[in-house]
Batch of 2 targets.
Target 1
Amino acid sequence: MFVENTGMAMMDSGGDNGRNWQRNQGVDFRKMPRVDYEYDGQYTTVTRSLFHHLDDCCEFDPIENKKFANYCKRRDMPSNTNSVEEYLYEKDIVDQGDVYKYHTDNTYNNENIMSQVMQYVAAGAIDKVYISIHGGADVRGGYTDIKVFDFDTDMFFMMTDCRLGCKCGEVYSDDCAQHWYDNWFGKDGIPSCWSKHMFRDKYQCKVCREIVWAC
């Protein structure tokens, strides 16, 4: 899905190779860090690999995927979230007041630390998630066809949580690195023994001398 050709729509400003699906060609996502961060001396920016996030909490369902693809083909419908909602409605998986049946969203609409945008329909009633990954440049277009997965509900929605740590200890954030929580005394939750590395956009601990890692 990360390398699926999602086309070159007019609204995309990716040029010849600036779209996500173009930049992803030849990338070995398995070798990329699960979580990485940058610290410029003032701000900390944490990024979680969407590939690893989905790999950790989703398992492809070829049978349900085929059913949905055939549904779209029979009705000459695009493979997108609107079609998923119609599909689930026909399966009687509908939103009924405060009873959680399905939830449709685009990660662009919410704060998160994911490396790429995706839109999805999470059908908690049947433990399936229907995912489309943004492969374009402009978030308004350039999405892959829907693929269907079994998923771990709790892990899937953990898109704002991260940790930083060294041999001396760890800090934790649940709001995209805006606030950190620990048992140490430090500015904004960051330990006072951490400072910017001289040559890298990372923290380094003054006590253990370790480069601070992220997970």
Target 2
Amino acid sequence: MSDVYSCEIVSTKMLTDTVFSISVACEGIAEQIRAGQFVNIKCGRENLLRRPLSICGVIGDELRLVYEVKGAGTKWLFERVPGQVLDIHGPLGNGFFLPEGDIIVVGGGVGCPPMLYAATSAKGAVAAVLGFRGAGNIILKDEFESVCDSVCIATEDGSFGIRGTVAGPLEELLGRGEYAAVLACGRREMLTTVASLCARHGVRCQVSLEERIGCGVGACVVCACATVRDGIERMSRVCKDGPIFDASEIAL
């Protein structure tokens, strides 16, 4: 059950020029969270809407969040220091269904943090396929390597790992192994490609949608998206009905 908590900042860390990690102590949230869920953070008095951040990891009563500084809200968050307190609402959303057996996690850019928590929570072996613009944008590489059986990194400019997108290495994995599911988070174009490859190989695919979220509890309907369930088209709320959806349920 979600609630609002006052959480003290334990540590902060720069991952790239624009991506940062923040850990907060919040026993009430940490003990409830499932991989794929998110929290909504109040970012100062001037910013009326909370900022949704996915969960990167949980250790004890500490919650780790990784975010990119994009606007006023995340800039305010970047300026916080250890010892200060954040107003956090969560956990929110439905989380991934983690099946028995081996899985593949696919992350693109700042879509990688929730996939790290999914990999940590998995019941079988995990193969990770991560995509970034270039070497300077790579995040969480060491953490993925510490919990996954294999990690493949693709960069669009070829400055690290495989040149290109996640499509090539993902198709190779799907073609040579039996996987119970593929879990993915990233830009819509990437999710479309991942879903198409999984459908071709007959592997269940779950995707985490990155939509603009307002209230975080399904009241404002800002994050509505078209879905199909049991043959019936309807509008679903990403914050409440998701953010995790079976790829077969949405028009990617």
